[in-house]
Amino acid sequence: MASSSSWQPAQEGVQQVGQLLQEYIQPNANQQLMYQRLQECSKFPDFNSYLALILCKGDGTYGDDVRQTAGLLLKNNLKTTWQFSEEPHESFIRDALTGSMTHPSRIVRRVVGTSLAICVRQKGWQSAPQLWQLIAENLDASKDPNALDGALDALYKICEETNGYLESDVATANQVGLPECPASLVIPKTLQLFGHPDGKVRQSAIAILNMIAPSWPREKRDVLDDYLRGLFALAHDPDDVARKYVCQGLVQLLHIAPEKMTPNLREIITFMLERQTDPDPDVAVESCEFWAAFVEADLEPESVNILREFTPHLIPVLLTNMAYEEDDEEVLQAEEDELNADRPDRDQDIKPTFRAQKDKSFGEGGKDGDEEYDDDDDDDWGTWNLRKSSASGLDTLSLHFGDELLQIMLPVVEQRLADQNWRIRESAILALGAVAEGCTNGLAQYLPQLVGFLYPMLDDARPLVRSTTCWTLSRFSPWLCRSAMPADHPNAVPGTTAEASAAGLQQLQTVLMGILNKIVDKNKKVQAGACGALANSLQEGRELLAPWTEQIVQALSAALERYQRKNQRNLYDALQTMAEYIGPSISDPKYADQLLPRMLEKWKNAQEGDPETYHLLECITAVVAGTGSGCMKYAPDIFAAASQLCTTELQKKEAVRRNELPHDAHIHEHLLVGLDLLSGLAEGLGQQCEPLLMNSHTREILLATCADDTPSIRRSAFALLGDVSKACPQHVSPSLREFLDLAKQNLAPDMITAATVSCCNNACWAAGELAIRCEPSALQPHARAFAESLAGILEMRMVNRSLGENAAITLGRISMQCAEELASALQNIAPTWCVAMRRLRDGVEKEHAFKGLCELIKVNPNGGVNCLKEICEAIASWRQCRSQEVSSAMRDVLQGYKNHIGAEQWAQLERNHLEPAVAQKLKQTYGV
């Protein structure tokens, strides 16, 4: 294709860049120096054009190795520069790449395809209309094989980069000179390639349409039938990868067009069941994904019943596939560790992880996250495979079909549990854990027998049996904990007796002691599984496990001495979970004495820059916050070290800003862990941290970090600000105006993005803690602006749950202090505010929110008349308000409005706008 660009290369420039590339690829070249020279060249606006020229038009002058290097450099540069590219270079590069899709060299075609994909991702498909016409032409199977290969490669990579989204309305396509959107252009041509004799071509064609499928163009909806027929035709393709993609395609169709599957559902299920035993493991894994997709798809009950017919055949197949393979790397690793328990961990054994920062919220607010299925808590040990996919499928099926699966599954499990082959026994244990949630009621009656059977498996000779048993027992934690609760506990098993509760408590102790013994197992895989099981049990049991605090601390303390690098993270997670959930029992100073000296020693001896240190300091932060006054004797040293860490990093950051230090001299993670440690101390010690704060630079640190340009720093800074405000507000009050301004800035609409929402959440929480503790006169100048920002948050669609709850509470606290200033805004803020308050848990924070609302209504009752429905529904959301003051205020509000609008209109409100349960609740509780 002829270039329409006016850019003309200088021959000297071509020679210089070419020479540099040739030198760069020489085996004895100084790679670092050459790379620096290439980076310097990247600063010139025409450098990418020279790279494109050498890649695409260097025939006869440069070898494939030089051209490939030029292409790889171009690809990397385009990732950061293409969206800012300008003419004439944009046209030259785009035309050169587009015209080289058909290049005779496969190496060139591959690099060209990658570069084109980046261009499309950066500027959208509309930026290269001629590309789509050419791809559609070259998808003709009768064309030059090189052209077909180049078109498929480019299209595949573009779909990868854009998640297959190449769809738009026809008018948008016409604006850039295309008759229809790219997806509509390429779908028919790609479908024709399903019958191509070359397996590689079939693979690519199916994979491309699988990626396009989620955003399939409306005008090509009728072609979905051809897509399905094409997949059927390739169901028994001799090419393994093609069969894998067929399975993927059928799963995609379940999500996007389940109605297309219904007429042939039995045939599809039969095919997927057959593929479960496909000789190619990748095909088997892909077919296994079908079962979860099936039950989650929007299918009619009749279709679900068809799958139910197959469960007697399907469940045994899943159980069979859940056994470890003979040569499974996970097995080999675990068995090797069994023989070499003291072998030091290698660097490659340590998997990179990211720090997890905690959102602050009033009370126990927060959000739960969905977890990817795994059969243990140490997913360093292997990748997604047929075993895990089968267990996940069984889990999902049990959640849908429930206890009815047990009559199929239990006889098979019982038979497998008695097998001499440990792999088969282990798969049966895994299966019990997989259905623990879905088959809760049916398995509950067998709980004592299950525990009695599984408990000895904790001492099995095979490490993977021991680790999976830990995981399965932890999956029974909800039942174990509920059965141990006294009869008067709100979550106890209905109808439980004192004798049954005592037996349940003994059963819980048995399981817990078994897991604690495995914490110090010699095998690393078992250690990891036990730590995960303990963390799960602590999250479920919470203070119910307090009687065994000493045994838990002893086991974890022993693990601190024993564990090597890899499992330290699992140990820290268990320690953090214990500190957070087990309750006041952990505040006994003896537990801090058992844990903190060893942890502080690790910190002292840590190598600078070691990422493991961040995990250690997160753990120390949690233990300090959990043990509270119990860690008092360690607090001064921890506080001093954390303060010094923050101060040093702030000084380095300023020096970097002044170009006195290199950019990498400042490590913002150091500042984060320092702030989090200070926050943990303030949270744990409360008012007892007063001596630590008295002569410190904490306020100066907060002023600097709350204004930092990095969201994660501000997130931790506002968490610390809120904790200090709660513990010792006098230490932030001298800079109250500055802190309120900083919090307010972070609640502006343009500051609330996906990347900053947690920072905004903590700023909102800190503002609420400041508001409740400062003088009204200090808050009044800020009240109106805060109310506008908080109301804006409450009006957002799909607002983060924790941020929405914090906004509702903080608005209430500001209204308590500044009712006169905010009363005129009541009619604007009340509707969404009331909706948010309905979702709050009963407690002091909810009382503050409602007290603020009642104060505004007292000053401006007319402001609430138009949102009486929302006010009534919010007040009815209380289960029980323990504050007599707030309860009386809500009664006065309701009675006042009933008197204001009259009994007849009140009756109409109840009849036409309130749910019967809401009206009944208001009558019973407040007499209106």
UniProtKB/TrEMBL annotation:
Main location: cytoplasm
HEAT repeats: 409-447
Biased composition (Basic and acidic residues): 340-368
Pfam family, one: HEAT_EZ
UniProt cross-references to SUPFAM superfamilies, sorted A to Z: ARM repeat (SSF48371)
Compositionally biased residues, Acidic residues: 369-379
Residue span of region Disordered: 337-379
Protein name: Importin N-terminal domain-containing protein
Localization of this protein: Cytoplasm
Gene3D superfamilies per the UniProt record, alphabetical: Leucine-rich Repeat Variant (1.25.10.10)
GO MF, any single term: small GTPase binding
GO biological process, one term: protein import into nucleus
InterPro entries according to UniProt: ARM-like, ARM-type_fold, HEAT_type_2, Importin-beta_N, Importin_beta
